[in-house]
Predict the structure.
Amino acid sequence: MSSATAAPQRQRQSRPSTSDPKATARARTTRWARRAPLLPALIFLIIVTQLPFVATLIISFMNWNSLRPNDTSFAGIDNYISVLTDQGLRASIITTIILTVTVVLVSLLLGLGLALLLDKKFIGRGIVRTMLIAPFLIVPVAAALVWKHALLNPSYGLVNGTLTWVWSLFGSDNPPQPELLSQAPLFAVEASLIWQWTPFMMLILLAGLQSRPMDVIEAAQIDGASRWQIFRYLTLPHLRQYLELGGLLGTIYIVQNFDAVFTLTSGGLGTANLPFSIYQTFYTANDYGLASATGVVVVIGTIIIATFALRTVFTLFQKEESR
Amino acid sequence: MTALNPTVQPSAGPTFLGRRRKSRMDPTRNSTIAGLAAWAAALIFAIPVFWMVLTSFHSENDAATNPPSIAAELTLDSYRNFFGGASGLDPWPPLINSATASITSTILVLVLAIPAAYALSIKPVEKWTDVMFFFLSTKMLPIVAALLPLFLFARNAGTLDNIWFLVLLYTSMNLPIAVWMMRSFLAEVPAEMLEAAQIDGAGLILTLRKVVAPVAMPGIAATALICFIFSWNELLLARVLTGVVAGTAPVFLTSFVSSQGLFLAKVCTAAVIISLPVLLAGFAAQDKLVQGLSLGAVK
């Protein structure tokens, strides 16, 4: 809307500029006056976020291990070959993909279910909503620690404790006591992340549900459409963009996840994802060149997802603007 | 919904009545089932949070039992120990560091984002959508890929273990989100009101104070709370770039657990205390949380 009002103004300013040099100068001043409030943020962001990536790109072509500072040299694409051939790093690429896809899909599905429930009116809806948002508002490291020690600890965690209690109700003193953190470490990481990210998906999908055009749905109900038909042919198509948005934003955040992997398993037992491997390559192994090349690989992967994400955001954005 | 004109379907009299009765009954029964399901799900999702809070009020001996001692006596011991530094770790420096980093970076973000959002909505620059998407694209690049150059820079410039370097990075981390959120809030200021102010000869400052601020204030508050949350939560940068002096609360949490016998109640207490600001900020911003998390794309 604001762009529509701005366009004619701009034309009005630029029209006399062809004839009168003074007017050209004035037009230029107005243009810069318009830009001025934007510049500090823009310049700050370019310096702080873009320069480090340029540096990463340069270092990724270098042989540089801080433990052997005299050996620094140009490496060509050696580091990239290492990224793709190194067993550990290849495994962490696969772990990243499995972790991200599982967490995003499951939390999207659970989030959709919860959003559909919360879209109905019932007693205590506000409290339920608040309780469901709570997992998202626990500091991620704190959440990971609570999962690791208070829930999943094999001897006194809540999960095994509950199993003992339930089994004792049936008179058994031999309850199953799984050690999830060592037996299924990736599953443990996934479960804790799904727990934290489902509220995020739920919030986005609930907003989507509540923006449905109700008159169309009522018309469909009057025409005798079944509840499933309404969901399948009206609600789901409307939600598609919100599902995409939730999925893509979730992907971008979870690909970058470090806290859960670092805290729950310290990247052991095949749970090291790319951010953790990069952290380790540079912080523990001090191989700067290899860490940077891995970083570049992550950036390329993210750019591919981000392109889709940006497109989805853009579509929603245009819709909001035209409203 | 049920008040439709019967002449539309004159032949379907009985079925129509039947359906009407059903549709009047169904919603209540369905929402009862939905309500029960929602309550069950909410309880499952909230159990870890409740358990964390409950354990933080238990003694170490009651915290680490199998089966769990739900009804064990409540005590403030671990809170006293936490703040008393009984484990030899003083929680105040990291908490103060986190507060400094989060609050200062949030203020900086607002100082930079509000004028930028103004130049993207109320008096938009040419190609303002391109600028918006540039801001957003910086948010999509993983921080971990910039970690090494930031570390090398900090080491050479002597800003390693310095909270102000973290403030700068958190500002850049949150600036795109804030610009997107603030733009969507400022775009809600009605154009007629701005024109009216202009016709009445109101200057820029007066327009901002009397027209823009009242509409945008709740949005500014929500943006600030969300930026605060993201800065407070951040671990990776803080872990690599700070140490004993400038370590933040999340870093403190990771070092806190090292290996100290019975420590479950301690861990839960620390987790509760460190999460409390985020929980408060999150619930305060609840209505605008989606808009912030979806970068203003969803309202």
